[in-house]
Amino acid sequence: MKEISLDTLDRKLLRVLQRRADISQLALSEEVGASPASCWRRLRSLEDAGVLGPVVRLLNPQAVGKKLDIVCQVRMKVHDLESRASFEAFIARRDEVMECLSMSGEWDYQLRLTLTDMAEYEDFLMRHLLAHPTVANSASHFALKRIKYTTALSV
Questions:
Q1: What is the pLDDT of residues 105-116, one digit of tens each?
Q2: Which of 6, 45, 53, 146 reaches 20 to 30 Å from 71, CA-CA?
């Protein structure tokens, strides 16, 4: 994806929308100091450029019973294109995987999972992840407490 140049108004819009995606067009225009029509055109332009993705509501994991945060590192058996594609397709279908990063260094992938309890993680790990034909091994790290979590980028 091509990086686009953001001006001051674009940056103001993005900062506000990352905090309050449900803000009205009128309130947004007042907060950033631009006309509603100008804001609307800017938002459409940012969407068309791929800067703005879908509008979502973030859930509080604790409130819905997801009390276990895990970082899981994965090492592949082999690194050919077919094996990586198979693993990545498998991970994309797993709802408990919140994030998957392809890594450099000792581990091939890093997963972030949010689950209800250790039994749910054991089931995922033993019956699904380690049973996948491309996975050699993994290491799990359990979060004691969430200190900071954000989805907002600095713009």
A1: 999 999 999 999
A2: 53
Domains and CATH numbers, the chain: 8-48 (1.10.10.10), 62-142 (3.30.70.920)
> Both tokens of residue 117?
């309890």
Helix (H) or strand (E) holding 112: strand 109-115
- Among residues 90, 68, 88, 71, the alpha carbon closest in space to that of 138 is found at 71
Going by their DSSP bridges, the two strands 97-102 and 109-115 should be labelled as antiparallel
Grouping H, G, I as helix, E, B as strand and the rest as coil, residue 115 is: strand
In sequence order, the 6+-apart residues with CB closer than 8 A to the CB of 117 are 67, 68
Helices (H), 33-143: 36-48, 81-92, 118-123
Classified as helix, coil or strand, 54 is coil
Answer yes or no: pTM beyond 0.85.
yes
